[in-house]
Design a protein that fits this description.
heterodimer, A: 435 residues, mainly alpha, Cytochrome Bc1 Complex, Chain C, 3 domains, two-stranded antiparallel sheet, 4 strands, B: 283 residues, Cytochrome Bc1 Complex, Chain D, domain 2, two-stranded antiparallel ribbon, 32% helix, disordered N terminus
Chain lengths: 435, 283
Amino acid sequence: MSGHSTYEPNSPIERWLDTRLPIIRFSADLLAFPTPRNLNYWWTFGGILAFCLGVQIVTGVVLAMHYDPSGARAFDSVEQHIMRDVNYGWLIRGIHATGASMFFVAVYIHILRGIYYGSFKAPREVLWLLGCIIYVLMMATAFMGYVLPWGQMSFWGAKVITNLLGALPVIGQPITTLLWGGFSVDSPTLNRFYSLHYLLPFVIAAVVGLHIWALHVPGNNNPTGVNVRSETDTVAFHPYYTVKDAFAVGLFVIMFAVFVFYLPEALSKVDNATPANPLVTPAHIVPEWYLLPFYAILRAIPDKLTGVLALGAAIGMLFILPWLDRSKVRSMRYRPTARIYFFIWIIAVLALGWCGSQEPDGVVIPGAPGPNLIDYPINSVTWLSRISAIYYFVYFLVITPFLRETPLPVPDSLYTPVLSKPDAAPGLARQSVEG
Amino acid sequence: MGRPVFPLALLAGLLLQAAPGLAATTQAPPLDVHWSFQGPFGQYDQEQLQRGYMVYREVCASCHAMKMVAFRNLGDPGGPFWNPKYPNPNDNPVVKSIAKDYQIATIDSDTGDPAKRPGTSADYFPSPFANDIAARAANGGALPPDMSLLAKAREGGAAYIYSIVTGDGTIAPRGLTIPPGKYYDPYIGGDVSSYWSGNPNGVPTGGFIAMPPPLTPGKVTFDDKTPSTVAQEAKDVAAFLQWASDPKMEERKQSGLAVMIFLVIFTGLLYGSYRAIWRDVGH
């Protein structure tokens, strides 16, 4: 896609095909794609994510063969039919349900890697935006998938989240009614969520295609953030990164398998083993862990519409990040000050995640005095959410654009740091001596 | 990220009545019980499952349905009556004789009238009540929950069930007024403060349950001569309900072991390939 193609058709058939549909050339160029030689393990999460998407689609298609998307039968079709009677149904469902969490573990690491190493900066803004779109689509898909088993948390989670849209002025109510297929969450809601849950992964796959295309135009960023200058800075994607990614996928699958085989319930809520009941509200309606930070931001704000807008803005920050961070230095490896604020931001997001799982009036530091501030005690989950949410936005809107810092010297080329540790770079050291 | 511990309003709805102020819900942590199915290699104790099944059949089943479990499941691998001689559990004589003791609703093929026939291995456990309203009417307004997924649907699982059953009918501390038709249970989530006349800072933990204490010593006579104390009966039935919730656990853990061994070797080979391919490349 970028640079010239090195593919040579070797047989008459390949030459014939190459002038008609150069699909072999396309694949060969993908495999030969020049990739910076200094990518670390944080860069393997792209491959891991492609693997996750594949796993979710394959297991999902099989589950769809056994699942019944009607309000009356959905719960039994999962808990009785798939989990008990379908051959290896427990395994396919276990992989799919655990896989959603694994997908988010990987995507969060992938996003944090992108922020830390400045992978969103020019000329990779479109690549970054496409990634943000994939993330939003993933959240929508995961949310709708969580509704399908039609347990208590499925039902009430759907109710809470779809009700958020109702807070929007004018369009809120019509959109909610359309989404519900009626005037409350019920069987028609489940039907359309099922339909969309089957559709969106293929939309994600298409956007992933664009994401990879947009990656192959400027090429990979790398841990130094320094542009690739010459051919010696790179290695072919295959076999160098196919094997490294495969090894990383192997490690990831080991962790994945521990959850599937030994902790199948660890990532779900006990309420979801009880069929949906519109007449009984669970005491604590909590979304899945990967949505908790946004849920905490939503609840931190007493006004519903403002809360919904803040939730949207929190995700929106990622979209505008390329235009907020104007530092010429890409990698935070050479930005010690920015790095500190970034790590505090991660702590704030983790704090928000914890807050999202707790009750709003829960105590943060047990036993500590907590005078009331406005509506909640200062030592409460609500105030920790508010402080963390403020930092979340301040980080993007104030610290990132206006930070004054003195970056460390940036190496001339991406393999200068490699040369400084010759043990790790026998080949390169030899080359440079010879050269 | 761990599972947040939260008491369930659901429980309150199903088992309790009048639990004012859910925010102040308290409950004692489930008792610490050792189970044969704990840990990555833990399996069900088949004799325990058989005893638990007896407790279920003779005590629980008069009020609690278990509609996701079929008679044939009792003879599945890992189940209470699994016998390797009968790989198809429908042929298992124990399963067949259990099924035959039940009368299953059917339709008379000549007249079309509702009728009854003896159960077969393929049938599911019939529910004790025709519907939820009938179940509530017979149980003082409380709905006995279906037991198919009970251990999975309660924080604490089998230990919680054991605790609830043994804690049911605990002698209430002086100063606690127990509403008619209810029993005090320290292990169930609830808020008894409005029934408490003692020290306001010493409100007893737990709540009220509509189920009368279900087990008494000697209530069930075990075939294997195990003394039937309340603790033994409760532990066995909790183990049985764990199996009912998670009947594929043994298959899952056995496959898991093979998968883990494969993955570790495979990933080791990938690491070796990675080192070999990158041997002469600086990075």
